Structure formats: structure tokens, C-alpha cells
UniProtKB/TrEMBL annotation, chain A:
Keywords: ATP-binding, Nucleotide-binding, Transport. This is Methionine ABC transporter ATP-binding protein. Residues 12-250 form the ABC transporter domain. It comes from Flavobacterium frigoris (strain PS1). SUPFAM superfamilies: P-loop containing nucleoside triphosphate hydrolases (SSF52540). PROSITE patterns: ABC_TRANSPORTER_1 (PS00211), ABC_TRANSPORTER_2 (PS50893). SMART domains: AAA. One of its GO terms (molecular function) is ATP hydrolysis activity. Transmembrane segments: none annotated.
TrEMBL record, chain B:
This is ABC transporter permease protein. Keywords: Membrane, Transmembrane, Transmembrane helix, Transport. GO terms for cellular component: ATP-binding cassette (ABC) transporter complex. The chain crosses the membrane at residues 52-73, 149-174, 202-223, 235-261. Its main location: membrane. It comes from the Bacteria. GO terms for molecular function: phospholipid transporter activity. It comes from Flavobacterium frigoris (strain PS1). Belongs to the MlaE permease family. It is found in: Membrane. Pfam families: MlaE (PF02405). It is a multi-pass membrane protein.
């Protein structure tokens, strides 16, 4: 369980979110709230709409209906510039890390930094910020390496550093431990907890890894067929008698 | 009588072709809109210019040299038959500068640069790198697409000039060996045969060729379908579609040139 105590001030609110691709109804009225300082884990089977929901949240996908409010701003009503500004407050860790493979680690971290002059001013030397972010993930020595020279776990850490460099208030993790060996996965979870303690961030974690949910969650939502099937803490949900809920914990 | 399903298939192919043209037009319109927005990604533009020019230089040079050489070797016996071998430099220069140089160089670049852009952006799309740029609050279209289209538009005329020069040099080598023509005499005749009306339209159309290569390559890569197969399709269809577009542009360019310069 995470050490940071969340308060009850919601910074993300999703109401009646619906999204279909042709006849495939992925989200069928999903709703949630994320409170400040909270780690919310969303669990669901593959194809249950977890990734679509998180992409709607960040504005990569447009929902068919429903409202998404992030820090008091309704995503659908924002202009491109306003959305880009809001996105600096939201970090996104992709499942495959999504590092820019033609750039070094330093350039990967500098890329968003140099383009947000409104938040950071015109930076002549980005080295202190780059090094601070890399030190947070324990990879300061990898600053001049190319992504192709990094292992899977290192890539995930660098992607996390790239997320942190914009000093976001919210971090969205899409399957943070998928594809990693158990030791590296555990290291990533410890890192996620330490980041939350250090930067006081809130997080939505999309996963189907029960260990990940047990370690990191304050609260959980089980997503089945595009709706909130069950909600509660890890302990509460693990005691549910419902076979669909139990299927996640076996 | 043609079976109904064959008619249906032809209609579907035609419909998807028109849809693609429509989407490409929207993509081009977005390019013009984004081109005038800040920030200007000048460093990335220069990097793309260097990459495209540097990587294509050898290929363009070798192809140009062989084209000039073969073209002269093949034409020489016919001109000799009519006793018009002294017209060789004029004929070669007009053919290469007006048509062969631009279209061959553009086709090579469509294969080299267009497919490269399609594959690079396609793989960035598949591995969510474009999405990562988007969620970090930067504009991937401006950084990836605008810079590449501008670079191809700017670099293709330079590559065509270079290719033309090498092709003419290849042609001169044949004339020198077969006809003992000096360098000065050969190139004197080459430049005497060329007029403003030969050079200018040929140069203008190379900008359109470059634009088409960048536009289609970026379009195919940017909207690449998921999976590694999607990357292959993006690279391949970028070359096929661009090659077709290049001939259409060339066809239009010849008509327009004919109106102004009376070919």
C-alpha cells in the first residue's frame, strides 16, 4: 500500500464515458474520480477498454459521449494550445516506453523541456533538470546512451524520467510492469512509490498485474465490458465472492 | 457482360482511391496551416536536409552518370546515320535538363527518401512515439511532418541539378572517347542549346516533385496501421503512390510549360 495519504479533492472526474469502434462498444458509461495524492489502479482483461479510457483522458482519443474533467478543465472544450498546456501537468508512461529512438537519452528528456517555455522559461542549460530526473530513476550514467543500447527495465525508467521532467501533478501508467521480469517489475514499483512520495503526484495505473495492484493501489476499479464492475481497496475486492472479481485475484 | 461482383470491386477500389486523395488533400492543407505556426523547428529541418541530401547523393550521382552514358551510347548510331552527330550535346542537354534528369532523380528519391520517411514515421506511430510527443504537449505534426516535407521540397531541386551535371559529364565521356570532342567544345554546345524556357519550368517542377515525395511519405507513415506489417505497407505504398503522382505532376507540368513557352 502506498505511503502517501490521499485527500478527497478530485483532480480527475470522468462521467458516463462511452466509446465505440463500429459495432464494438468498448466503453459503456465508465465513471471515476481520482483524488489528490491517490493511486488508483484500474484492472481489467485485455480489450476491456482500459487503454482506450486512458487515451480519452489525455486527449489522444475522442469519446463518443461523456465528460472528462482534469484539474477543473473539461478536455473536450479545450483548444489545442490549452490542451498542450494541461498535458504538461499530466505524465504518461507508455507500455512500450515509447522512447524516441533517433535521440539519445539526454535528447529524449530535453525534447519536451525545450518546447514548454511558458512553464520553464527559455532554458539555456537543461543539464541540471535532465540530471535530476535521471537521478530520480537511478540512471544518471545513461545520459548519453541511445535507446537501442538500453535494456527493457532501463527503457521503462528513462521513460519515467522523461515523464517526470515536466514536473506533472498526475501520472498515468499504462501497464508499467508488463513485459518485465519479476525483479525489474518490483524495482519499477518501488520507483513509482518513491516518485509519488518525492513529488506528491496522483496516479492512475492501468494493469492486470495483481502484485502491482497490491503494492501500489489506494483504491481499485475493476473494468469489465466497459463499465465499473467493482470498486474498493485491494483488500475489499480480494474478498469479493463474485466469480468475475475473483478471476482477477486467482 | 461483366459480372456484378467485378463491377462492385472496381467501384470499391475507385471509392477508396478518391477517399485517399481526399485525406491527402486535408493532410496537405494541415501542412500549410502548421507551416506558419510557431515554434519553427529549424534545427530538425536542417537535420532532415542533411540526411536526405547526404544519403541520396551517391545514388543520384551513379544513376545520373549511367543515364548520361547509356543515353549517349544508344543515340549515337542513329545520329551518325543521319550525319547529325554534332547535335549530340544539344540533344542530350535538352533531354536531360527538361525531362530525364528531374523525373529519374525524383523517382530515385521517391524510392530512397519517400519509403524511408514512410517507414520511419510508421514505426514511430506503431511504437507510440508519435503519441508520446502528443501527450508531452508538443506538436508531432510540426516537428515530424512539416520539417520533412519542407526538406524534400528544398533538397530535390539541388539533387536534380547535381544529377543533371553528372549525367552530362557521363555523356561527355562517351563523346570524348568515341568522337574525340573536347570538354570545352562539348559543354559550350550544351549551354548554347539551353534556354531559359528549358531550365526554369524544369526547376519549378522539381519543387513540386519534392513536395509530393515528402507529402505522400509523411501521409503514409503518419497514418500507418498498427503492427509491423503496417510499417511495410506504409513504406511500400509511399513509393507506389508517389511514383504515380510524379508522372501526373510531370504530365501537368509539360502542358503548362507548353502554354507559356510553346514547346
Amino acid at each position: 500500500m502506498s505511503t502517501t495519504i490521499p485527500n478527497n479533492k478530485p483532480i480527475i472526474e470522468i462521467k458516463d464515458l462511452r466509446k465505440s469502434y463500429g459495432d464494438n462498444h468498448v466503453l459503456n458509461g465508465f465513471h471515476m474520480e481520482l483524488n489528490e495524492g491517490e493511486n488508483l489502479v484500474i484492472m481489467g482483461k485485455s480489450g476491456s477498454g482500459k487503454s482506450v479510457m486512458i487515451k480519452c483522458l489525455i486527449g489522444l482519443e475522442r469519446p463518443d459521449s461523456g465528460t472528462i474533467e482534469v484539474m477543473g478543465e473539461t478536455i473536450a472544450e479545450l483548444s489545442r494550445t490549452a490542451l498542450d498546456e494541461l498535458r504538461t501537468e499530466i505524465g504518461f508512461l507508455f507500455q512500450g516506453s515509447a522512447l524516441y529512438d533517433s535521440m539519445t537519452v539526454r535528447e529524449n528528456l530535453e525534447f519536451p523541456l525545450r518546447r514548454h517555455t511558458k512553464k520553464f522559461g527559455v532554458l539555456k542549460d537543461t543539464t541540471p533538470l535532465v540530471m535530476e530526473a535521471l537521478e530520480s530513476v537511478g540512471l544518471a550514467h545513461a545520459v548519453n546512451l541511445m535507446p537501442a543500447e538500453l535494456s527493457g527495465g532501463m527503457k521503462r525508467r528513462i521513460a519515467l524520467a522523461r515523464t517526470l521532467i515536466l514536473q506533472p501533478k498526475i501520472i498515468l501508467y499504462d501497464e508499467p510492469t508488463t513485459g518485465l521480469d519479476p525483479i525489474t517489475a518490483k524495482e519499477i514499483l518501488i520507483l513509482m512509490k518513491s516518485i509519488q512520495d518525492k513529488y506528491n503526484t496522483s496516479a492512475i495505473i492501468i494493469t492486470h498485474d495483481v502484485d502491482c495492484a497490491r503494492v501500489i493501489s489506494n483504491r481499485m476499479i475493476l473494468l469489465v465490458d466497459g463499465i465499473n464492475y467493482a470498486e474498493g481497496t485491494f483488500e475489499e475486492l480480494s474478498k469479493y465472492a463474485d466469480p468475475k472479481v475473483q478471476a482477477f485475484f486467482k | 457482360m461483366m459480372p456484378m461482383n467485378a463491377i462492385f470491386k472496381i467501384t470499391e477500389v475507385f471509392k477508396s482511391f478518391l477517399l485517399e486523395i481526399g485525406e491527402l488533400s486535408f493532410f496537405a492543407a494541415r501542412f500549410f496551416r502548421e507551416s506558419f505556426k510557431r515554434p519553427v523547428e529549424f534545427k530538425e529541418f536542417l537535420r532532415q536536409c542533411y540526411n536526405m541530401g547526404n544519403r541520396s547523393l551517391l545514388l543520384v550521382a551513379v544513376t545520373g552518370f549511367i543515364i548520361g552514358l547509356v543515353f549517349t551510347l544508344q543515340s549515337r548510331p542513329t545520329l551518325q546515320e543521319f550525319g547529325a552527330v554534332s547535335w549530340m550535346p544539344s540533344m542530350v542537354s535538352i533531354s536531360i535538363i527538361r525531362e530525364i534528369g528531374p523525373i529519374i532523380t525524383a523517382l530515385i528519391c521517391a524510392g530512397r527518401i519517400g519509403s524511408g520517411i514512410g517507414a520511419e514515421l510508421g514505426s514511430m506511430r506503431v511504437t507510440e512515439q508519435i503519441d508520446a510527443m502528443e501527450v508531452s504537449g508538443t506538436n508531432p505534426f510540426k516537428y515530424l511532418v512539416v520539417t520533412r516535407i519542407m526538406a524534400t521540397t528544398f533538397m530535390l531541386p539541388i539533387l536534380v541539378f547535381f544529377g543533371d551535371a553528372i549525367a552530362l559529364f557521363g555523356s561527355y565521356l562517351v563523346e570524348n572517347v568515341k568522337g574525340n570532342v573536347s570538354f570545352l567544345l562539348y559543354f559550350n554546345q550544351v549551354f548554347n542549346a539551353l534556354e531559359f524556357g528549358d531550365l526554369m519550368p524544369a526547376t519549378i517542377k522539381t519543387f513540386f516533385f519534392g513536395f509530393a515525395i515528402g507529402l505522400v511519405g509523411c501521409f503514409k507513415g503518419y497514418y500507418c496501421k498498427k503492427g509491423t506489417a503496417g510499417v511495410g505497407v506504409a513504406a511500400n505504398s509511399a513509393v507506389v503512390f508517389t511514383s504515380m503522382l510524379l508522372f501526373i505532376i510531370d504530365f501537368i507540368a509539360v502542358f503548362v510549360t507548353d502554354i507559356f513557352y510553346d514547346l
